[in-house]
Design goal:
Blueprint (H helix, E strand, L loop, with lengths): L12 E8 L6 E8 H12 L10 H14 E6 L5 E3 L3 E8 L2 E8 L3 H5 L2 E6 L10 E8 L2 E8 L4 E5 L1
Helix pairs in contact: 1-2
């Protein structure tokens, strides 16, 4: 159900965690956003009432479509070309007033050998201009972080 709860919380912060294993090339992505905000964004974007509590195929499709429009990982190959990393939506879960969204990339030759990754996260920006996302990228034992905003929706981490 789309609600007006977005007026209740005074700040709009999302957290994105990326776990990148260089040996396998596998990537796990967890994105945390306020539930009422993601419900409203999906309704406005997809014209679907995303129900966070209902684990249905229609909810998964609506969430996946919205995330694919507003979130991307790109890896630079040895020729300098950036390639979109195809992620599979594993699902989502609720944690108090937040929704965690889980994605995974099974690993590929490009993600094994890459030295940098670009993260683009524009989730909720179309509805909430003050939305920010804290992005943490963990590659093996190294952790890098950056804050994204409407005016700076992407970051490149280099190893």
């Amino acid at each position: 159900m789309v609600s007006m709860m977005s007026f209740v919380h005074p700040f709009f912060v999302g957290v994105t965690e990326i776990a990148w294993n260089s040996k396998s090339g596998k990537m796990g992505v967890s994105i945390k956003v306020f539930t009422d905000d993601i419900q409203e964004a999906i309704y406005k974007s997809e014209k679907v009432k995303f129900q966070s509590l209902v684990k249905s195929e229609s909810n998964k499709l609506a969430l996946n479509k919205y995330v694919k429009k507003h979130f991307a990982l790109k890896i630079q190959d040895k020729n300098g070309k950036f390639n979109v990393v195809d992620c599979t939506m594993l699902g989502w879960e609720l944690e108090e007033e937040a929704t965690w969204i889980y994605l995974e990339h099974a690993g590929s030759k490009i993600t094994k050998n890459a030295k940098q990754i670009t993260v683009s996260n524009e989730l909720l920006f179309e509805n909430i201009p003050s939305q920010i996302h804290i992005v943490h990228c963990n590659r093996n034992e190294s952790r890098k972080s950056e804050q994204l905003s409407h005016s700076k929706p992407m970051v490149t981490f280099v190893w």
